[in-house]
Please model this.
Amino acid sequence: MNLKITSPESLDTAVAAVVRKRIELTTLKAAKDTEVAAVEKQHQAGITKKEAEITLDEETILAFCAANRGGLFTDKKSRETSLAVFGFEMTPHRVETANKKIKWADVIKRAVKASWSKVYVRAKLSLDKDALLADRETLTPEKQTALGIQFCQDEQFFIRPKPETAAETPAQEAA
Model:
């Protein structure tokens, strides 16, 4: 629908039309979400059961392959069938503490102390914009300039249905 606004009255009518459409949209989204939740609930038991079956089957295959590794994987660490490639492979490298007694905080302290390992310590500095916004009334223009910041606001257009309007259904509005 192409709105034609030529007067304050037609503006009010156009805003009312947008509000009704927003209410209809919210109703449609709620209906969709309800249906999606029902479909997910309907299928969840089957999905959970199938995932458990797959996990059990994969554990059985792994146990057999591990127990018979020498005979099954003579040339390579993997085997190929018409449906899959399976076998053993190395995981990507990862960093762990040397033993369970050493905590990551200790590793960081050691890395900071050793001159050669500071490159391995990451310090993420970020500006606390929420604190700046909370203190915006007390930060003088000089302090803002010293930090190289300014507080900005933009004007934006909005249409917000009133709470009592949102409670009405499109059917009530048509009556």
